[in-house]
Amino acid sequence: MFGRNAKSEIDSLIGISARIEGDLVFTGGLRIDGEVHGNVIASQGGDSVLIVSEHARIEGEVRCANLVVNGYIAGTVYSTDLLELQPKGRIHGDVHYRLLEMHGGALVTGKLTHETDPVKASEPVFHLGAVEAGASA
In the chain, which ranges are continuous DSSP H helix? Predict the structure, then answer.
């Protein structure tokens, strides 16, 4: 759906028995099965995919393009493209997204904020000057 096949293009894996203390910056695809105590941030300029499995736990801010959550995140989430909340997904914090797919059973405790496409948001919907010029003619 979003240009990358999330199931086949995972570049990095944090295993179920791993625990990371500190911020994590990644490019491409990352799957987390373990714990991260720190921010998880995708490098800018790429089509990033982050998969948070049902065993995963993140305590910190998450920033990426495409995010699939079936585990637990405690912190603010920013998804610039698609956010998919699967049935066991839990987010305790505010969520900023462009596209949202939420399965039954998923839970968000915080504020959901829809972010518009920055290119389309900068274009005016209605050109007042053009209407006034046409009305006076």
Answer: 118-121, 128-136
